[in-house]
C-alpha cells in the first residue's frame, strides 16, 4: 500500500468539528493528569510503603497499561469509539477516587492496578476517531493539533501541580477524577454516535493486526522512538543533577519543549514540509532529534540545555504525529482501533524499559554516554527510513 504524501495537508481551521471536540476533551483531561508524579509520594509517605515496594507497585502499573491499550483497541472496533472513550475515562475516575479514599497499602495497590488496566483504554479510540473523520493528507495536522493541545495542557498541569502540592495529596487524585468525568461527559454528549464498520464479525479480524508484517515493523521502530522519548523525561532531571544544575530547571526545559511543539506547528503548514512524504519528514525529525540528544550530553549550563531542548523538540514535532498517520493508513477501516492499539504498546514497553536503561547508562557511562547512545539510535532510525518505506509499500 502506498502512503499518500502530505501535499494536501490543510490548516487547522479546515479540520472537522469532531477533531476539535476530541482535542478539547483530551486537553481538559490532561489538565487534571498531574497526579502520577505524586503517586509514589502517597504510597511511601502516607501509606507506609518502602521504596522497593513503591518501585514494584509503579512497575505493575506500567505493565498493566499494555493490556489496557489492547483492550481499548478491541472495544473501539467492537463497541464503538465514543462508548470506549467514555468507558475508559469513567474507569480512570473510579480508580483515582479509590486511590484518594484508600486507607491501607493493599487497597491502594488494587486501585493502582485498576488504574493501569483502564489508563490507556481511551487512547486507541481517540486516535482512531481522528483517522475516521479526516482525509489521509489531513491526519498529520490533526494529530499535531492533538499533540499541541496536550503539550499546552501539560504546561498548565505542571503549574497546577506546583500550586496544589502543598494540599493533602489525596485531593489531587480527587481533582483528576473530576476532570476525567468532565472529559467523559463532554465526549458522550458532543461526539458523534458509535458505528460498527463491516468486517468486525470476522474472527480473523481479532488477530489481523498481529499478523501484519508492516505493523510489526512500525511497532519495532516506534518502540525505539518511545524509549528515547521516555529517556528524555527520565534522564534529563538526573543529567541536571550530575551537571550541578537545580532540579527546578527541568520544569523550565519541559515548558520550553511544550512551547516549541505549539509554535512549531506552523512549520507543518509551510509549502516545503507539506510537499514531503511521511518518511522524509521522519528522516529529518530523527536527525534533529539526534542533534538535540547529543547536545544534551555535552551541555553544562542552562542556556545550552535550552538550545538542545528546542532542537530535539523540533525533531519530536516531525515525528509524533507521523507514526499514527502511517499506522492509520495501513489499517483496514474495521480494524483501525486494533492497529493503533498494537502500535501503542510501544509506549508501555518503553515505560517499562527506559528506567532501567537510563539508570544503567548513567551509572556506567555518565550523561555523555547516555545521550550519545540515544543520539546514535536516532541516527540509525533516520538511516532506516527509506528501507521502512519500501517494506510498507
UniProtKB/TrEMBL annotation:
Membrane topology (UniProt): Multi-pass membrane protein
Entry superkingdom: Bacteria
TM stretches of this protein: 20-45, 105-122, 143-165, 171-194, 215-238, 250-268, 280-299, 305-327, 339-358, 364-384
Main location: membrane
Domain Major facilitator superfamily (MFS) profile: 18-392
Pfam family, one: MFS_1
Gene3D superfamilies tied to this protein: MFS general substrate transporter like domains (1.20.1250.20)
Subcellular location field: Cell membrane
Key words, A-Z: Cell membrane, Membrane, Transmembrane, Transmembrane helix, Transport
Name of the protein in question: MFS family arabinose efflux permease
The species this protein was found in: Kribbella orskensis
Amino acid at each position: 500500500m502506498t502512503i499518500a504524501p502530505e501535499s494536501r495537508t490543510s490548516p487547522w481551521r479546515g479540520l472537522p468539528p469532531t477533531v476539535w471536540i476530541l482535542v478539547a476533551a483530551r486537553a481538559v483531561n490532561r489538565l487534571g493528569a498531574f497526579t502520577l508524579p505524586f503517586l509514589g509520594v502517597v504510597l511511601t509517605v502516607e501509606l507506609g510503603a518502602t521504596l522497593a515496594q513503591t518501585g514494584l507497585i509503579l512497575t505493575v502499573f506500567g505493565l498493566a497499561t499494555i493490556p489496557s491499550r489492547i483492550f481499548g483497541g478491541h472495544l473501539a472496533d467492537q463497541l464503538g469509539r465514543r462508548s470506549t472513550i467514555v468507558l475508559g475515562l469513567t474507569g480512570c475516575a473510579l480508580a483515582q477516587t479509590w486511590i484518594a479514599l484508600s486507607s491501607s497499602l493493599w487497597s491502594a495497590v488494587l486501585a493502582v492496578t485498576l488504574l493501569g488496566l483502564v489508563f490507556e483504554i481511551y487512547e486507541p479510540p481517540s486516535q482512531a476517531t481522528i483517522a475516521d473523520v479526516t482525509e489521509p493528507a489531513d491526519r498529520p495536522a490533526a494529530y499535531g493539533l492533538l499533540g499541541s493541545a496536550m503539550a499546552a495542557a501539560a504546561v498548565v498541569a505542571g503549574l497546577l501541580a506546583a500550586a496544589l502540592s502543598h494540599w493533602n495529596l489525596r485531593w489531587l487524585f480527587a481533582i483528576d477524577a473530576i476532570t476525567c468525568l468532565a472529559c467523559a461527559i463532554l465526549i458522550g454528549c458532543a461526539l458523534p454516535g458509535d458505528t460498527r464498520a463491516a468486517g468486525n464479525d470476522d474472527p480473523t479480524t481479532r488477530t489481523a493486526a498481529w499478523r501484519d508484517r508492516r505493523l510489526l515493523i512500525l511497532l519495532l521502530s516506534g518502540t525505539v522512538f518511545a524509549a528515547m522519548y521516555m529517556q528524555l523525561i527520565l534522564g534529563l532531571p538526573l543529567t541536571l543533577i550530575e551537571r550541578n544544575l537545580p532540579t527546578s530547571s527541568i520544569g523550565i526545559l519541559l515548558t520550553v519543549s511544550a512551547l516549541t511543539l505549539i509554535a512549531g506547528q506552523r512549520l507543518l503548514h509551510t509549502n516545503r514540509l507539506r510537499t514531503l512524504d511521511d518518511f522524509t519528514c521522519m528522516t529529518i525529525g530523527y536527525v534533529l532529534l539526534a542533534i538535540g540528544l547529543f547536545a544534551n550530553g555535552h551541555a553544562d549550563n542552562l542556556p545550552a540545555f535550552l538550545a538542545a531542548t528546542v532542537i530535539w523538540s523540533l525533531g519530536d514535532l516531525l515525528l509524533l504525529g507521523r507514526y499514527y498517520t502511517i499506522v492509520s493508513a495501513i489499517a483496514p477501516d474495521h480494524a483501525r482501533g486494533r492497529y493503533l492499539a498494537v502500535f501503542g504498546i510501544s509506549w508501555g514497553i518503553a515505560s517499562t524499559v527506559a528506567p532501567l536503561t537510563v539508570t544503567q547508562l548513567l551509572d556506567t557511562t555518565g550523561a555523555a554516554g547516555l545521550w550519545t547512545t540515544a543520539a546514535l539510535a536516532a541516527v540509525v532510525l533516520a538511516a532506516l527510513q527509506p528501507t521502512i518505506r519500501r517494506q510498507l509499500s
